[in-house]
Amino acid sequence: MRRQPPAKGLAGVDMTDDAARRRIGTRLASPPLLTDEDEAALQAAIAADPDAAELTDAQLARMRPARKVLPPALYAALTRRRPPDAAD
């Protein structure tokens, strides 16, 4: 039987490690704060990605709510609440 790779939590911690799970708890933990170096590297990567352009004020002004532009049946299907166990 193949072994699954360790499951990583939000903080990038191996969640199969019992000690790490006890430190973080079983609930979602807040991700660790970025260091200034990490933040600078992240911002540089975002700036270098042509697909990650920020929206302009004109683009934001043209946006309309989904409920006003989608067909009612599609909007209802996309916003329907499902039981938590059915979300998987």
Automatic annotation (TrEMBL):
Region (Disordered): 1-27
Highest rank taxon of the organism: Bacteria
Protein name as catalogued: Anti-sigma factor
Organism: Methylobacterium persicinum
